[in-house]
Amino acid sequence: MFGFLSRPLLGASIVAALVACDVTYSSKISVAVPGDTSIEQKSELTQRVASALEADRFRERIAERVPTATRDQLDALHIAWTHTFAVSVGTDGAEAGSTVYIQCVISSSEKLEDNHPVLESCKELVEEELSRQLAGERAA
User: Domains along the chain?
Assistant: First the structure.
């Protein structure tokens, strides 16, 4: 009955949906957590690394290391972690493996300039703290 209205309503719905979309730009770099410990132990380790970096004001340290870093980049920078599970099938059968990664992530609603130097500096700090935490575990 109202077929003549369907096209304008459909067009208006699409426009409304596109206007309501929120775009997030994200850049990240990852560091694999080494060792043969369980996923739970690796997850706890990543939480300790992230907490230690936050307590050590890692954003300010990155600003010192990377003079071109902008306040927007540093404000959008955070530490995250992820767990991946993979299965590879070969002639010798199937092998399963899992890895935990600590990630330096810059997420922003605006596209920021070159994030690579900031992410590389963050990665170096993560690797340093990860080494400290692993050395502490070995000593304990």
Answer: 24-139 (3.30.300)
pLDDT tens digits, one per residue of 99-111:
999 999 998 887 8
- Token pair 């600590």 is found at 102
Integer CA distances (angstroms), 49 to 82, 107, 110, 122, 123, in order: 14, 20, 28, 12, 12
pTM: 0.75
Residue 41 to residues 47, 48, 76, 93, Cα–Cα distance (Å): 10, 11, 28, 28
Per the CB < 8 A criterion, the answer to whether 110 and 76 are in contact is: no
